[in-house]
Amino acid sequence: MTKVTYHLPDGTTEQVDVQLGETLMNASLRNNLPGIVAECAGSCACATCHVHLPKEYTHFFAEPTDEETDLIAYLDAADDDSRLSCQLVVGDCDAEIHVRVADSR
């Protein structure tokens, strides 16, 4: 399992064990973490699972699809680290990954 530390909008952190093949969105929902709404249930259609993934962790995940990139372009809080957590599928790694949950307020 991969350990993922979620830096939450309220300034707290939560570390979660994420299973191989699970998305960061599903792991967040499974652990009742605040901030990831996931209105479309992970179908890459709403961008309510917006997170900021620091560059040092991008190699653990697939490149963003055109669909994901298009959705991110409409977000006010988007930056170069923006990703949708529904598209971040955990692979086989033993590293600890950090992700900052976007403030959706």
UniProtKB/TrEMBL annotation:
InterPro entries (alphabetical): 2Fe-2S_ferredoxin-like_sf (IPR036010), 2Fe-2S_ferredoxin-type (IPR001041), Adrenodoxin-like (IPR001055), Adrenodoxin_Fe-S_BS (IPR018298), Beta-grasp_dom_sf (IPR012675)
Record PANTHER family: FERREDOXIN-2, MITOCHONDRIAL, FERREDOXIN/ADRENODOXIN
Domain of life of the organism encoding this protein: Bacteria
PROSITE patterns (alphabetical): 2FE2S_FER_2, ADX
Cofactor requirement: [2Fe-2S] cluster
Keywords attached to this entry: 2Fe-2S, Iron, Iron-sulfur, Metal-binding
Family: Belongs to the adrenodoxin/putidaredoxin family.
Every 2Fe-2S ferredoxin-type domain range: 2-103
Taxonomic path: Bacteria, Bacillati, Actinomycetota, Actinomycetes, Mycobacteriales
GO biological process: P450-containing electron transport chain
Molecular function, one GO term: 2 iron, 2 sulfur cluster binding
Protein name as annotated: Putative 2Fe-2S ferredoxin
